[in-house]
Design goal:
- This protein is an alpha+beta fold and 456 residues long.
- The chain folds into two domains: 11-240 and 439-451, Thaumatin (Sandwich), CATH 2.60.110; 295-402, Beta-1,3-glucanase, C-terminal domain (Metal Transport, Frataxin, Chain A), CATH 3.30.920.
- It has seven helices and 27 strands.
- The strands form six sheets. Strands 6, 7, 8, 10, 12, 15, 16 and 26 form an eight-stranded antiparallel β-sheet that branches. Strands 11-5-27-18-19 form a five-stranded mixed β-sheet, with no helix packed on it.
- 45% of the residues are buried.
- The structure holds 2-acetamido-2-deoxy-beta-D-glucopyranose (3 copies).
- Residues 43, 45, 48, 50, 169-170, 175 line the site of one 2-acetamido-2-deoxy-beta-D-glucopyranose (NAG).
- Residues 72-449 form the GH64 domain.
């Protein structure tokens, strides 16, 4: 539509950018973080954990325990430091989550669960406890043992130190406030950090994943060893993936004028710290970003499938369903309880708002169409030859035409083994493919986490 105008503008901005540091040159580009204090924290559902706060002492199932008491759900984490060129000089691990009673826990440096105090303060209060678990030097492996089962857990790895906070939840309780990847003023914004998510329970065993659905930060990989000697791996990204992804995003902005480059954050020296997913960027006060990016494409999709159907393979007992717009604003699929309005860019990148928001009462067909339709938009496969059946085309056809979720493309380009979600329905694939970065086992013996790239 106005692609040429944008291209001309971007080229002009590039040409004059070195001499003119004005509003044109700075319209899109990596965002330099400026870490603030507790009042600069933006409390959202993505960086809070709202469990029970029993406060400051070691208490399990309502009973005081001796500080050394360990449960039956111990899990050793072997953390391999492959981090070349640490900025801080000290890589630290932090663990946060909930115990099986729903209490918020953090792992203290003495190896016990620390129960942070609740608060009635509306301004986040920093947790004053010894929570940093230092890793050994580059090339070494440090073993950190989780003292018991954990739910909704995160194992954070940081080049330097992280701060954790508590804030009132406004309803007589409190919330744990964890580092935010999206807020450039977050107190932790200048630290290079990331996390592995895990849940380990007696009934369900261990589930651990590395996700790039929200951002790419410090480079992490995983390997799970079972007590039977079996191993599962999710190798994660290459050592220099953040710089590679950000360079590709900067080039993408230079070619199409959209703010891909603004997904990247740098420290005060200009070093890339992380890349945000476009949904997270849009949600963080950038509501207009990418707003017309998919408009022409969506109109073409709607007219292409006006009467000739888009076939969605539900990959369930419901089989294939035919979807058409009939020239209307709504795409309607056979046996689906409701149709799909045209999505916004934010709806496409996030897959959980607008036409992609699931509602109670939605039937099995609707539950199957939402992920498959949203994945097809992110990968730009709907108008390709063979794209009238979804899912159907192989991964080599994903992201081959614009518009596409280029963040997802560049993340996948840098994945060592192709595994790790870059948007929430990245597990939609033709039968036999699975790109999730998940490891799971009922008989976990050790979870190995590599920091700074896979071991060679
Ligand atoms: C936790 O509580 C805070 C404060 O009320 C709220 O803003 C946040 O969305 C809640 N988090 C979750 C995950 O529900
Ligand atoms: C990753 O693991 C966490 C904790 O088990 C879980 O809540 C989350 O849904 C998982 N995410 C993905 C993308 O599998
Ligand atoms: C991919 O593998 C993960 C981990 O085993 C599993 O949770 C997920 O359901 C699988 N996805 C598909 C589409 O098979």
């Amino acid at each position: 539509m106005h692609g040429l105008a944008k291209w001309t503008w971007a080229l002009a901005a590039t040409m004059i950018g070195q001499t003119l540091a004005g509003p044109i040159a700075s319209k899109h580009g990596p965002i330099r973080v400026h870490p603030g204090g507790p009042r600069d924290i933006v409390v959202t559902k993505d960086d809070t954990l709202n469990g029970t706060f029993i406060g400051g002492t070691v208490k399990v199932d309502g009973l005081l325990q001796s500080a050394s008491a360990a449960g039956t759900g111990q899990l050793p984490l072997a953390i391999v430091n492959n981090m070349a060129g640490s900025t801080d000089g000290q890589i630290n691990c932090y663990v946060a989550g909930q115990d099986t009673s729903g209490n918020v826990v953090l792992l203290a440096s003495d190896g016990t669960w620390y129960y942070p105090p609740g608060t009635t303060s509306g301004v986040p209060v920093v947790i004053d406890a010894d929570l940093a678990l230092p890793l050994g030097a580059e090339g070494s492996t440090t073993t950190i043992t989780l003292p018991d089962y954990i739910v909704s857990g995160r194992v954070y790895i940081a080049d330097g130190t992280l701060q954790f906070f508590v804030v009132t939840n406004g309803a007589g309780g409190a919330a744990l406030v964890q580092p935010s990847p999206v807020n450039p003023s977050d107190p932790n914004a200048a630290v290079n950090w990331g996390f592995v998510e895990l849940t380990n329970t007696a009934d369900g065993g261990l589930y651990a994943n590395i996700s790039y659905v929200d951002f790419v930060g410090i480079i992490l990989g995983m390997s799970l060893l079972g007590t039977d000697g079996s191993t599962q791996t999710a190798l994660g990204l290459g050592a220099d993936a953040v710089a590679q992804i950000c360079a590709a995003l900067v080039s993408q902005t230079a070619s199409d004028g959209y703010p891909w480059s603004s997904l990247c954050m740098t420290d005060s020296s200009g070093n890339y710290l992380r890349a945000l997913a476009p949904y997270d960027f849009i949600a963080d006060n950038n509501g207009d970003a990418f707003s017309d990016y998919f408009t022409d494409y969506i109109n073409s999709v709607w007219s292409t499938f006006s009467s000739s159907p888009l076939t969605v393979d539900t990959q369930t007992d419901a089989g294939e369903v035919a979807c058409t717009t009939g020239g209307s604003d709504t795409l309607t699929c056979g046996n689906d309880n409701r149709g799909y309005a045209q999505p916004s860019a934010g709806d496409i990148f996030g897959c959980n708002t607008g036409p992609f928001a699931l509602q109670s009462g939605d039937n099995a067909v609707h539950y199957a169409v939402v992920p498959r339709l949203c994945a097809a938009f992110n990968r730009g496969t709907l108008l390709l030859s063979g794209g009238d059946v979804q899912p159907g085309l192989p991964a080599t056809d994903y992201y081959t035409t614009a518009p596409s979720n280029y963040y997802s493309k560049f993340v996948h380009d840098n994945e060592v083994d192709g595994k790790g979600y870059a948007f929430s329905y990245d597990d939609v694939n033709p039968a036999g493919e699975n790109e999730s970065g998940t490891v799971s086992s009922p008989i976990a013996q050790t979870l190995t986490i590599t920091v700074g790239g896979p071991s060679s």
